[in-house]
Amino acid sequence: MIYKIPTSQPGLVCVVFELPSCVWADRIVVSGTFNNWDERAVTMHQDRDGVWRARLELPIGQRYEFRYLIDGRWQTDYHADGFTENGFGSHNSIVDLTLVMTLPIATRAGSQVPDGQVAKAPHLPAPTNSATTPARAPRPGTPAEMPRLRPRVAAA
Hints:
Blueprint: E1 2-6, E2 12-19, E3 28-32, E4 42-43, E5 45-46, E6 52-59, E7 63-70, E8 73-75, E9 82-85, E10 91-96
Antiparallel strand pairs: 1-2, 2-6, 3-4, 3-7, 5-6, 7-8, 7-10, 9-10
């Protein structure tokens, strides 16, 4: 799984590579065109929740090919943005940052509502005491008159 998170630096995006906790390995490395396929540059670390993670800040506007090197064996992430054939009879995964749009933190829309656009809550009548209101006759078909149904039990 890959996550793209805006950074405070213009033109960069933080890419988080994740592999699930069920991956049993001693060492996992992310290697790709962003680091000239260096097999030692980006080591993934297993967090407390067991998930393997690595973070990189990459320039936006480009597509990067990558693969995981899990204990010396190359693996493709088919949950990435895409994949393409490589010259070795397998596939490379793709991180596509060509459509990523990031705004500097100062220009991002905040979660505050402008002063003139605050909507007032509708006026609701105050609750009345049931002792002061006259009792109504029950209508036919109220829940008290409806037959009870037994829940359906699944077959074993």
